[in-house]
Specification:
With 155 residues, this protein is α+β, with helices and mostly antiparallel strands. Helix 1 (13-24) packs across helix 2. 26% of the residues are buried. It has one domain (2-113): 3-Layer(aba) Sandwich (Aminopeptidase). The chain has 4 helices and 7 strands, in the order E-H-H-E-E-E-H-E-H-E-E. Helices cover 25% and strands 34% of the residues.
Length: 155
Amino acid sequence: MELEYLADHPELLPTVAQWYFEEWGYLSEEKTLEQDIQRLQIYLNRDQVPLMLLAIEEGELLGAAQLKFREMSIYPEKEHWVGGVYVAEAHRGKGIARQILLALITLAKSLEIETLFLQTEHLDGGLYGRMGWTPIEQVNYHGIEVLVMEKYLKA
């Protein structure tokens, strides 16, 4: 498996948008798949936020995750976030999300980001807790209970 930038595979953007639309599209009744495809264009970067990493094996897209700005409007002071962590159903349970997250953390460090944040519907922290992310608080955001977590990247 290789981890590559969406910027190097823009042809895969519609597939990622479809995944996201199917997984989280219900959160906005007005949003369409075409709007998601357009919105994800900003992730076509390699050396600056926002960017997206893809897990690819033998030409097959396995998963994706984003390094992004200000994911939750209720936290305007929290700048850098990991979001859109998604692994295709047939490839879940193989450690792919963990590998993508580790690569995003390494990238964030290289960009001199000091703290990363994320939100998860797994209120016990799930994978993120096992990877050392620290819970900040549980909140109801857009009608969904989520756990907000952080990871300090500076020693």
